[in-house]
Write the structure tokens for this entry.
Amino acid sequence: MTAEPVLGRINVMKPWLGEEEARALAEVVASGWLAQGPKVKEFEAGFSAAMEVRHAVAASSCTTALHLALVVAGIGTGDDVVVPSLSFIAAPNAVTYVGARPVFCDVEPATGNATAETIRAALTMDTRAVIVVDQGGVPVDLDPIRELCDRHGITVIEDAACAVGSQYKGRPVGTGADVTVWSFHPGKILTTGEGGMLTTHRADWAARARTLREHSRSVSAADHHRSSLLASLQSPPEVYVEIGFDYRMTDLQAAVGIVQLGRLAQVVNRRREIAARYVAGLAGLRGLRFISDPPYGTTNFQSFWLEVLPAFATDREGLMACLAAAGISAQRGIMAAHRQPAYRWRDTGNAGLLNTERLSDRTLILPVFHELDDEEMNRVIVSIRAAAGEVGA
Ligand SMILES: *Cc1c(COP(=O)(O)O)cnc(C)c1O
């Protein structure tokens, strides 16, 4: 009797971390400066260069960076902000934090992203900003949205939480928005454990975000420390210029981020390779539609999602059950915020969100992470082929 081979569980996502990150952390610990300081500054400089944008301001998460973005853009009570429902709930939440109203817009089925048309349908007399999302890493078609918003004096905020390493018309995503926010949560492409970034071309917005993230203190704690060391003089009393927040990133996180940023090209290439392997391995199956590069850009495949169409042998839940039986965690596709209890009873001014609901019901996300190996990829492919009813799969 031979024992069944024990197959490990395949996660949908796993961060790629190594010795270098551990060494970077050890250096910060040895330095004794753990809070926001020189490493955060270095990470910001590296990130703004890599994303081809003038200013980068690190934050404690993408959600707090979104909150800062809305504050510096001057959004508040009485304002409407258009945001796709088909996304993580952080964006409408941040709109609510500043006292504005999120108005949900629909998305196009091909990319799962908002378009100029779906946004136009959601505009109101009070729309002051739009939050566009590069959903799952797929770049949003920003130029037509930019044109629409410029015509109406509407600020464009890009939620690129998932999209570091994705490109729009040959450049990093985010460069065309007024302000862009990024996430370094472990479920994203680069991680600092928790963490976020705000990027903008506007010096005044960057400066205000920098102050706001640190209690709106006139002198940052790091600069205060440095100047008192140098001058050993009484420095002037700090002033709190407006009501701020504590949204700082730590130097521990930034040190990991610097190493991770150096791995970006490698990580994106590997994810694109894995996605291509899935597409090749699942070729010929009826009733599955895979997310792919849009005509105007490239995705980092932060989420490799597929839509289970009625022509497939089973529905999304059936396919997920088959995968689960083979020890594979897939994830139900992207959420629809307007269906959550938090928003169900609010006046969010929605029109029909038909594509949003369809994609949210029919999509699932397959495992993609740097160290996914051939055996694991084959297991995913064989399980889906079996769910499709292929004999011997
Ligand atoms: C993950 C995610 C966020 C939140 O990021 P945090 O860093 O965890 O706050 C926001 N928006 C989108 C689209 C996301 O995917």
